[in-house]
Amino acid sequence: MKYIPTIGIECHVQLATKTKLFSEVDNDARGKEPNSCVSPVDYALPGMLPRLNGEAVKFAIRAGRAMNCEINPSSRFDRKHYFYPDSPKGYQITQFYHPIIGEGFVDLASGTRVRIEHAHLEGDAGKLTHFMDYSLVDLNRVDTPLLEIVSMPDIHSAKDAHDYCHELWRLMIYAGVSHGDLYNGNMRFDINVSIAPEGSDELGTRAEVKNLNSFRSVERAVLYEIERQSKILDAGEKVAQETRGWSDDTGKTTSQRSKEEAKDYRYMPEPDLPPIRLSSDFIEAELEGFPLMPADYRGLFGESMKSDILEILLDYPQLMKKMHEVSEEDTGAVVLISNLFTSVLLAEEKAAEYLNDLPLTEDLVELSKMNAGKELSSTATKEVFLRLFDPQMRGRGTKQIAKELGLIQENDLSALETIVDAVLAKPETQKAQDDFRAGEEKVIGFLVGQVMKESQGKANPAAVQEILRGKLK
After folding, report:
1. pLDDT in the model for residue 259
2. Which one of 53, 202, 203, 447 is separated from 356 by 20 to 30 angstroms, measured CA to CA?
3. pTM: predicted TM-score of the whole model, two decimal places
4. Rounded to whole angstroms, what are the CA distances from 460 to 405, 415, 448?
5. Residue closest to 225 by CA, chosen among 200, 202, 201, 242
């Protein structure tokens, strides 16, 4: 029997604020000692009250705009009660009833539209590390600001699940609200997967797979769940509603706990934090100068750039911003510079370092013009391009760098003809000339090479070949 999968995704985005959501403690604990980024508020010392970080609210507004969402002028926090060692307060401060972000949507490159149900602010829990007979808790992550983004069940393939998570990551990076460090858990994904027979009006029983931290893991977990649930239904059995864990090593999900009985979190309004009231002027001020998003760049470069190159560059906001600047100066430079960014720059060992200090736009445009005018060969173009990233070359300009490196091609036809005549007069080229006249086309390469050698590599090979053919006929 053929089954149709339905996938909903909850994404937890760690916001890149300097301090935590409810205390003035460093929010970036990457590489720091356990329990070194904590305060009395974080470990729930009696009488310590939370204080809302206004930057988190501003970041939520920007994230909402990136996802085409409504920004709710009124929102509030609630207490979600549960007892676990990684939550010293005995509850999580979240937004259950009145979230800050309302409905919206995310469009994928494939054309699929995934609706956003809502997104809400909440404080994260701590981290438990389990050993043989004991566990240790690290509270560094307690109350780091999270934006939980809840999608509608609009995804129906593992590929779209992968692409949706990838696009969310891009949106949060472009909006400047998250570091997007997947390795350190800046974004985590919970996927709800169910399958139903083709043509069914009802969704199947869903299984939730929690805490995935890569797009590839999301895709693999969805594929595994579709296969697992299909086998269960084919055997005439029922899929259990449960929470499952994922292992990248085994490529399988495993049961963690049943969800047959919904846990009562005893939600109640957070008494220590007042409601959030946002005026339209405040929202507009925060969104002033909002940057272009991936969808905007697809609209700008969809015809001038190959789709595979565009999708690679979209992972680097700084490159797309530079491409936009290049296109505004010279649309003809888009193809060459985008190819150099993907095939040359991103292949360099120092690519991450280079991304932080890109060449001047006018230098890139000049490079494109010199290549188009045959002043630089393709090899020379790549060499000059990389030299533009050299701090010692900054300020000299593309043409000056090319001159210093002796890479500018000779395009003066009369000068080239003189060199060609000199090569054809040499005894060692006579046999190649006779072979060409006898129909052996491949020897033209040897003759072009001799001219290039005579010109010390500065001759334009295409022009040289044209002159040679004319003279040999």
Report:
1. 62
2. 53
3. 0.88
4. 16, 11, 10
5. 242
